[in-house]
């Protein structure tokens, strides 16, 4: 392993990319400790002592939310804006045309995504500042607007930081910022486990069970993330002039988890809505209904799993255009052995995709509700071990390692992964 790691630093270009990425991580971590002006951080931290939904958001921000720093909203508004633009690209003809224009079209979509990030970030910042106004030293309109502008500026800076990592560093910058935020919470979690052991709150058996579950979930997540169904495709020979085209075999890789972590984000956002509304409406029955949707309640857990199943199918259907895939195969002389090109091929691909999407949807639902069962089985509370965070960490790590592998192999060195 050390020999493989040394290959990374043998290439000047790759070494510079890795060093630049690590330097940007330091900037990100420094920003999580810069407090927003006019806020009592001690009051804020009391809201994040339990492993609820706020604890999940704090995990993604690398602890910036519990400190209410300038990076408290993390990169979440950018992710939401990107998802909205991706869906609008399928619905709005103009955006669909831009997506097919290559680099110039992508620049236009990226620019709109940035504007959307600012708008969504400002709206979210106002809601966050107003909802946490008990921690504001002077909760006037002016101070709330100042805090909202500060939080929005922090998100925009993180967006720029992520783009710089993508351009000059290694891997996807936005994903790596989330990755860094999650991994940075690991020492705190280990320290809490040590305190539990020292105080006698848990015994060594609980800790061993926790470790076994964690290792099993890591293996499970890697297997599903890498899992795919390979559909064989044969291309017929075509003679054009003196050249022969086609005549080779390939395959279409259909991923089990085609939707990634997006369905979990959708489902959690929808279920946060009643709880968020209850913070602004001081009515008894509204508060009662909102309590049913609090993180970890039976109703919330069941609805969470069902909505993840729905959004997995929805997002897969929106992003994977099977009729176009079948039509492109037919256009270039490709066919699946035993099937006629056109509609029979599209029906077959749709049937296969529906079956493997069910496996991916069930996987995502289990991953999302995992923290509730881990706490119940091991008796370890207050330490967030979530499948959502694990899914992000494993996915980003695998993608980044593949990019490093490709750069190393381009220079004819021994690969990073074997």
Automatic annotation (TrEMBL):
CC per GO annotation: plasma membrane
UniProt signal peptide: none
Entry's Gene Ontology BP terms: intracellular protein transmembrane transport; protein targeting; protein transport by the Sec complex
Top-level division of the source organism's lineage: Bacteria
Membrane topology qualifier: Multi-pass membrane protein
Transmembrane parts of this sequence: 65-91, 112-135, 141-161, 173-194, 200-224, 261-281, 301-322, 356-377, 383-401
Location relative to the cell: Cell membrane; Membrane
Keywords: Cell membrane, Membrane, Protein transport, Translocation, Transmembrane, Transmembrane helix, Transport
Quaternary data: Component of the Sec protein translocase complex. Heterotrimer consisting of SecY, SecE and SecG subunits. The heterotrimers can form oligomers, although 1 heterotrimer is thought to be able to translocate proteins. Interacts with the ribosome. Interacts with SecDF, and other proteins may be involved. Interacts with SecA.
Function: The central subunit of the protein translocation channel SecYEG. Consists of two halves formed by TMs 1-5 and 6-10. These two domains form a lateral gate at the front which open onto the bilayer between TMs 2 and 7, and are clamped together by SecE at the back. The channel is closed by both a pore ring composed of hydrophobic SecY resides and a short helix (helix 2A) on the extracellular side of the membrane which forms a plug. The plug probably moves laterally to allow the channel to open. The ring and the pore may move independently.
Family of the protein in this entry: Belongs to the SecY/SEC61-alpha family.
The protein, known as: Protein translocase subunit SecY
Lineage, highest ranks first: Bacteria, Bacillati, Bacillota, Negativicutes, Acetonemataceae
């Amino acid at each position: 392993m050390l020999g493989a790691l040394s290959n990374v630093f043998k290439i000047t270009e790759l070494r510079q990319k890795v060093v630049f990425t690590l330097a940007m991580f330091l900037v990100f971590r420094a920003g999580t400790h810069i407090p927003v002006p006019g806020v009592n951080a001690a009051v804020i931290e009391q809201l994040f002592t339990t492993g609820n939904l706020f604890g999940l958001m704090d995990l993604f921000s690398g602890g910036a939310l519990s400190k209410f720093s300038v990076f408290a909203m993390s990169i979440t508004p950018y992710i939401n804006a990107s998802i909205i633009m991706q869906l609008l690209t399928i619905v709005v003809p103009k955006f669909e045309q831009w997506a097919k224009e290559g680099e110039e079209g992508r620049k236009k979509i990226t620019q709109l995504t940035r504007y959307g990030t600012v708008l969504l970030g400002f709206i979210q910042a106002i809601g966050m500042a107003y909802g946490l106004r008990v921690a504001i030293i002077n909760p006037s309109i002016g101070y709330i607007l100042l805090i909202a502008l500060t939080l929005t500026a922090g998100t925009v800076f993180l967006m720029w930081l992520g783009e710089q990592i993508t351009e000059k560093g290694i891997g996807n910058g936005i994903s790596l910022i989330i990755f860094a935020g999650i991994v940075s919470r690991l020492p705190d979690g280990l320290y809490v486990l040590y305190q539990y052991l020292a105080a006698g709150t848990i015994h060594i058996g609980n800790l061993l069970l926790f470790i076994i579950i964690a290792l099993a979930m890591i293996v499970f997540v890697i297997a599903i993330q890498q899992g795919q169904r390979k559909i064989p495709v044969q291309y017929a020979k075509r003679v054009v002039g003196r050249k022969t085209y086609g005549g080779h075999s390939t395959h279409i890789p259909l991923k089990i988890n085609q939707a990634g972590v997006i369905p979990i984000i959708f489902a959690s956002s929808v279920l946060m809505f009643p709880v968020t509304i209850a913070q602004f409406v001081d009515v008894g029955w509204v508060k009662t209904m909102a309590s049913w949707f609090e993180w970890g309640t039976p109703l919330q857990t069941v609805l969470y799993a069902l909505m993840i199943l729905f959004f997995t199918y929805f997002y897969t259907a929106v992003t994977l255009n099977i009729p176009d895939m079948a039509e492109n195969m037919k256009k270039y002389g490709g066919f699946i052995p035993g099937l006629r090109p056109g509609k029979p091929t599209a029906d077959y691909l749709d049937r296969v995709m529906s079956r493997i999407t069910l496996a991916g949807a069930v996987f995502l639902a289990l991953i999302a509700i995992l923290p509730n069962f881990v706490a119940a089985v091991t008796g370890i509370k207050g330490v967030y071990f979530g499948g959502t965070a694990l899914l992000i960490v494993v996915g980003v790590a695998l993608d980044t390692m593949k990019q490093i592998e490709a750069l190393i192999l381009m220079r004819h060195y021994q690969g990073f992964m074997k």
